[in-house]
């Protein structure tokens, strides 16, 4: 087609020169020029990761996705759409988690157009559709999981980041499939308790950490006391009755579980009066 356009240009130039020397502009030169302008409207260039959607009288004709120099029937309507990878970060949404606690959450979605025709015709504005459906999926996900896990093997937003990201990607992809959009990655970018309960939840986390630490200390102390009593009996270092064992256990537990350094009291016996 480019060769045909160049031929029209050469023909028009030749006819115009002939008309100039003949002191008149021949009608074939004008007709050739009109045909050349009409054919030039069908030329277009597609850059990498771009597509052209073609329509004829409102009817979808096809899409051109291969990069380079192309020509189509000039009466086709051409609409350009990008196929590049794009990312979108949602606003900080305030929702209630599975336990009813208000939290702030946001996500980043990496996406691109998979089907240019569906993106153009299935939804009104596919970019706005991506934004709205992503936030809707994020809200729905946040209500199905707690911020922190309070039970064994419970899925939480903070403790299971990778699994939550997979669920978010799957849910967003289901919502955007009809718009011809492919979700490449979806991850939570912001997660925090709402300001009105942040202080209370911080104290709760600190209390949980203290309880866990004290439980670990007590468990270790019991193990050490048991080992001490067992080794004393096996080596016949000292013979102790039940009352002596109870006193020793009490003293060892105080020493091992105390938060501050313990000051021992050494029994040196009773001094005789003279």
TrEMBL record:
Protein name: SPFH domain-containing protein
One GO CC term, this protein: membrane
Highest taxon of the lineage: Bacteria
Ranges where the Band domain occurs: 41-205
Membrane-traversing stretches: none
Chief location: membrane
Phylogenetic classification of the source organism: Bacteria, Pseudomonadati, Planctomycetota, Phycisphaerae, Tepidisphaerales
Location within or outside the cell: Membrane
PANTHER family assigned: BAND 7 DOMAIN-CONTAINING PROTEIN (PTHR43446:SF1), MEMBRANE PROTEIN-RELATED (PTHR43446)
InterPro entries given in the database record: Band_7, Band_7/SPFH_dom_sf
Pfam families listed in its UniProt record: Band_7 (PF01145)
Gene3D superfamilies attached to this UniProt entry: Band 7 domain
Membrane topology category: Single-pass membrane protein
């Amino acid at each position: 087609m480019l060769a045909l356009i160049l031929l029209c240009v050469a023909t028009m130039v030749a006819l115009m020169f002939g008309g100039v020397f003949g002191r008149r502009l021949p009608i074939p030169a004008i007709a050739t020029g009109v045909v050349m302008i009409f054919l030039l409207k069908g030329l277009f260039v597609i850059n990498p990761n771009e597509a052209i959607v073609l329509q004829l009288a409102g009817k979808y004709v096809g899409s051109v996705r291969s990069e380079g120099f192309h020509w189509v029937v000039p009466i086709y309507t051409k609409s350009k759409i990008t196929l590049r990878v794009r990312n979108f970060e949602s606003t900080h949404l305030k929702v209630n988690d599975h336990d009813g606690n208000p939290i702030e959450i946001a996500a980043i979605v990496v996406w691109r157009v998979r089907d240019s025709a569906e993106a153009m015709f299935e939804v009104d504005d596919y970019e706005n559709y991506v934004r709205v459906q992503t936030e809707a999926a994020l809200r729905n996900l946040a209500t199905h999981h707690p911020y922190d896990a309070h039970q064994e093997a419970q899925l939480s937003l903070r403790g299971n980041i990778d699994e939550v990201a997979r669920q978010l990607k799957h849910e967003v992809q289901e919502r955007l499939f009809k718009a011809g959009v492919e979700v490449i990655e979806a991850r939570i970018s912001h997660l925090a308790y709402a300001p009105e309960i942040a202080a209370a939840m911080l104290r709760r986390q600190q209390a949980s950490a203290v309880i866990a630490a004290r439980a670990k200390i007590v468990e270790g102390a019991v193990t050490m006391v048991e080992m001490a009593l067992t080794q004393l009996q096996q080596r016949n270092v000292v013979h102790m009755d039940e009352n002596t064992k109870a006193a020793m256990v009490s003293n060892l537990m105080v020493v091992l579980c105390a938060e501050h350094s313990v000051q021992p009291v050494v029994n040196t016996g009773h001094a005789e009066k003279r």
